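ugh ok fine here u go
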Amino acid sequence: MDASVLGVMIPIIAIIGAFTMIIYLRKYENQERMSMIEKGVDPQFFNTVRKNRSSAGSLRAALLLIGGGIGLLLGYFLDESFGMEEVAYFSMLFICGGLGLGASYLIEEKKFKEEKREERTILK
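structure:
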């Protein structure tokens, strides 16, 4: 198979596969809900589950990208000042990206502890 044909086929197959996966996930989710309703589970249960979503993934991604941007900026300054070339970019990118992930971990832990403390005060 020619490389240009393969280069066109891969994105098409990936899009069709993703679309099919979403359709089947929605189908099985609907079947699960219908069987739960048939067994007498309250339909309001589904609304409460959706409200309890966590923003941890968004926070993690945001701080990782901010750290990556700062790392690239610091890498540029090191490259211009000391002529370090690629080493400065990669090292600063990984260091600042890691710092961003560490900060997101600390923020999530603080939030988790506050939620636990609130639960304890409510239960008392």
